[in-house]
Specification:
The protein folds into 2 domains: 206 residues, no CATH class; 125 residues, Rossmann fold. The protein starts with 9 loop residues before the first helix and ends in a 7-residue tail after the last helix. The chain is α/β, with parallel strands linked by helices and 446 residues long.
Length: 446
């Protein structure tokens, strides 16, 4: 006869104090990495105290025809409005299509809820919703002008650009235009003459993600003077050169801009303050253009990896991710392993390996596979073992693993780590600097 096991009297005590171990590990993590990120925090804050605002503070925009719609009002009525699982899934599909078919006209209806043509299996490479150069439907589609068009050249449709534009593309009910659309001529058989995009939609506002894209496009001789100019802020930094911006760069951009839509409150306040200061200090003819610039605060919405994993696995009824704080295990991701942010995370865990809890670095296979610069040499500072490791996964597994994490280490907002962590839910460790401290702040800060 087997002997019945007697529960250990220490087990309830250990279970009741497990949260203390998690808290201690969390404090050790934050303390160990705080010195590394202090310089990054100072760098992020220093731009706020200069006379010339940095271009990163620009954000996104919406026309009256969109902001007055019932759908927009339902979302805009609360800064913390819930986005449905189907809409979150749509954002994931738009972001993926933006990268996979980066040289096409991408309309917001691709894989949208209710769009039977795409939703059964939303493959952008086989979808009839997207339009390629030479498509016979192109002229007919372009002449059906949207409330707002979005410009993003093919070379800029990487992880950063596509993640930033998915929300505006969907909720502005817009279409994403590559650079060739602005250059080509299409023959109109009925009119017996060639047409250009600017002739078809001369009054449709154009939204830009970058001040450099704005200056290059709007200053061209072909740009219609009556076409409104919108700018998204904070913008995506596509400028790979280290050359400093010219003097009065911010002003030269805002003089050409009709509307700036900010996805952070700090952006909204800083741009308005900058405009008021310019008008007050320079009461001449040059102030006329900048006086007409409008600034709107829009907040932001991003894709949810946990929702994507549940939906793709046909688990509509599955509960949303519930953070488990009993066991401390951190997650990190990036679209650029060689970035200073991720290398600092590797270095931090190498330096304090004994003191810190396990860390999983999840990388999306589509972004890191077959890249010469993403070799194992970038993983060398990382103390990989059975519990702490770098994992390169496909889209569904990546979304599931990262979305199920409860602790996230995302030092800056320079990559997708912070956006994905916020969407997944859990505890996020980041630098106490703008815009990170606004993105992770609770509804009411004491």
């Amino acid at each position: 006869m087997s002997k019945k096991e007697t529960p250990s009297p220490l087990k309830p005590l250990l279970d009741s104090t497990r949260w203390l171990h998690s808290l201690g590990a969390l404090l050790l993590t934050a303390g160990a990495c705080s010195v590394i990120w202090e310089l990054a925090a100072l760098h992020a804050q220093s731009a706020l105290f200069t006379d010339e605002l940095r271009p990163e503070f620009f954000a996104l925009t919406a026309p009256a025809s969109v902001t007055n719609s019932s759908e927009w009002r339902a979302i805009d009525s609360s800064g913390n409005a819930e986005v449905s699982p189907d809409d979150l899934l749509h954002l994931s599909f738009l972001e993926a299509a933006c990268q996979v078919e980066n040289d096409t006209v991408l309309p917001w209806v691709f894989a949208a809820p209710g769009n039977a043509a795409d939703r059964s299996f939303p493959n952008p490479q086989a979808s009839t919703s997207l339009l390629h150069r030479g498509d016979p439907r192109l002229l007919q589609h372009l002449r059906q002008c949207s409330d707002v068009d979005i410009y993003l050249p093919s070379w800029a449709r990487g992880p950063a650009g596509c993640a930033a534009i998915a929300g505006p593309l969907k909720y502005l009910r817009s279409r994403l235009l590559p650079d060739w659309v602005l250059r080509i001529e299409l023959y109109d058989i009925a009119a017996r003459k060639s047409r250009r995009y600017y002739e078809l939609c001369p009054h449709t506002p154009m939204l830009f993600l970058s001040p450099d894209h704005l200056l290059k496009t709007v200053k061209a001789s072909s740009w219609p003077k009556e076409k409104p100019v919108y700018l998204m802020a904070p913008t995506v930094d596509f400028n790979t050169k280290t050359t400093p911006r010219p003097a009065q760069f911010t002003r030269s951009v805002l003089e050409l801009t009709d509307v700036v839509l900010c996805r952070t409150m700090r952006c909204d306040q800083d741009i308005k303050h900058f405009l008021l200061r310019q008008i007050k200090d320079d009461e001449d003819e040059r102030s006329v253009a900048i006086k007409n610039t409008r600034v709107l605060y829009t907040s932001q919405v991003t894709a949810d990896p946990a929702n994507f994993a549940r939906k793709m696995q046909d688990k509509d009824a599955a509960p949303q991710n519930v953070a488990d704080f009993a066991y401390t295990r951190f997650a990190h991701t990036t679209w650029n392993v060689s970035s200073k942010t991720t290398q600092d995370v590797f270095s931090c865990w190498k330096t304090y390996k004994k003191e810190l809890p396990p860390l999983d670095v999840y990388l999306l296979r589509a972004l890191h596979e077959n890249k010469q610069n993403d070799g194992t040499r970038f993983y060398k500072p990382f103390p990989g073992d059975r519990d702490t490791k770098v994992q390169v996964l496909d889209a569904v597994k990546f979304s599931k693993r990262f979305g199920e994490a409860s602790f996230f280490i995302c030092p800056t907002a320079a990559d997708d780590c912070l956006d994905l962590a916020r969407a997944s839910g859990g505890l996020v460790v980041t630098a106490d600097a703008y815009p990170m401290n606004e993105f992770v702040a609770t509804k009411k800060r004491e």
